[in-house]
Structures are given as structure tokens and as C-alpha cells.
């Protein structure tokens, strides 16, 4: 039977996404065994972000400063804006290092089921950014779900009257994906997004 302190730590870790009670216990044990090497680093890193984390007032990214590192970076292309549902999507796209513009985080997706309306998302601030000018292209990088696509269509309509090119991520075959393993939705998307060879 572990002490109350260890139990509290285990419970806190088990609430992290992707970690259940079992992996939390393994993580705690791992940390305890390395309390001189790994534990101080972790404590320090957590303390460092605790007081400095802010939401970027421009794009909605989470960073230790506002404007965030991406909005403040003069090397990023200010004429290209990529709209995503959540900060995790922004981070995933930015890790891939393929997009050199800036971002706009909606904070979710439209959902009749969950009662999420346009005014619940950062759509007004998106329109304002586009209306302010200086943006040529808006890339809608919503998830390939029904709600994600509904959100993309809604935003495309709201941006209709502005002189910007609106594009969308192609949804198709995953890298290494074999046709007969794909669900029909993915296959249909891949077929619709087909393009000339070469
Ligand atoms: Zn930002």
C-alpha cells in the first residue's frame, strides 16, 4: 500500500490524457526510482509554465507569452492564415513544419448535439482578422468529421465577401494506407480529391 502522497500523485497523473491508473503507477515508480535525475527536471519544468502560460490574444495558441511565438515571428508569412479547431491541431501542424503562415484557433467545432454555436467559437475574431486586411489565403484545417466539415462550410460562407482565397486540407489516403483497410468515408474523400497524375 503506497503512502497518501504517492497515491495523490498517481491519481493526478492518471487524469492526464492517454494515461490510465496503470500507466500512471508505472510513471510514478519510474520517477521515484530516478528522483535525483528526472524528478527535479520535471518539477522545475512544471513550475516554469505554471505562472507564465497564457492564451495568445491574436490566434488563441497557448504559449508562455502573448503574442505567442508564432504570431511574434517576423519570418512567418502573415498573408496566409490556417484555421484549426484546437491548440493540439495547431501544434500537430506546426510540428510537421509544412505550413509557414500563422494560425487561428477556434476553440472547438460547431455542434448541434453539444449546443456549440458560432458565438461560442473564435469566429468573430477570425472575421475581424480577415477584415483588417493583409491576408490572402485562409486554409480551413478542420477535422474530417461531420462537425468539422460543417464548421468549415460555415466559416467559408462567412468569409465569402472578403477578397481571400479559401482552401481546405485534402482528406485522403493516409501515408502507407492500403485501400481495403480504409473506411468508406476516407475512400470517398480520396476519390473526390483526386488530381491529375504527374
Ligand atoms: Zn498567436
From TrEMBL:
InterPro entries: DNA_Rcmb_RecR, Rcmb_RecR, Rcmb_RecR_Znf, TOPRIM_dom, TOPRIM_RecR. Belongs to the RecR family. The keyword DNA damage applies. This is Recombination protein RecR. NCBIfam families: recR. It comes from the Bacteria. Gene3D superfamilies: 3.40.1360.10, 6.10.250.240, RecR Domain 1 (1.10.8.420). The gene is recR. One of its GO terms (biological process) is DNA recombination. A zinc finger (C4-type) spans 56-71. It comes from Novosphingobium marinum. May play a role in DNA repair. It seems to be involved in an RecBC-independent recombinational process of DNA repair. It may act with RecF and RecO. One of its GO terms (molecular function) is DNA binding. Residues 79-174 form the Toprim domain. Keywords: DNA damage, DNA recombination, DNA repair, Metal-binding, Zinc, Zinc-finger.
Amino acid at each position: 500500500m503506497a503512502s497518501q502522497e504517492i497515491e495523490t500523485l498517481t491519481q493526478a497523473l492518471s487524469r492526464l490524457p492517454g494515461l490510465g491508473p496503470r500507466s500512471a503507477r508505472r510513471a510514478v515508480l519510474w520517477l521515484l526510482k530516478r528522483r535525483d535525475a528526472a524528478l527535479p527536471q520535471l518539477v522545475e519544468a512544471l513550475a516554469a509554465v505554471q505562472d507564465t502560460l497564457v492564451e495568445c490574444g491574436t490566434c488563441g495558441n497557448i504559449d508562455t507569452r502573448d503574442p505567442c511565438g508564432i504570431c511574434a515571428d517576423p519570418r512567418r508569412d502573415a498573408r496566409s492564415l490556417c484555421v484549426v479547431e484546437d491548440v493540439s491541431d495547431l501544434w500537430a501542424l506546426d510540428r510537421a513544419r509544412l505550413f509557414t503562415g500563422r494560425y487561428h484557433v477556434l476553440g472547438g467545432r460547431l455542434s448541434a448535439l453539444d449546443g456549440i454555436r458560432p458565438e461560442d467559437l473564435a469566429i468573430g475574431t477570425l472575421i475581424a482578422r480577415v477584415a483588417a486586411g493583409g491576408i490572402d489565403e485562409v486554409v480551413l484545417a478542420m477535422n474530417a468529421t461531420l462537425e468539422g466539415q460543417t464548421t468549415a462550410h460555415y466559416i467559408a460562407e462567412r468569409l465569402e465577401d472578403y477578397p481571400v482565397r479559401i482552401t481546405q486540407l485534402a482528406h485522403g489516403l493516409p501515408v502507407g494506407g492500403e485501400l481495403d483497410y480504409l473506411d468508406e468515408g476516407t475512400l470517398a474523400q480520396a476519390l473526390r480529391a483526386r488530381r491529375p497524375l504527374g
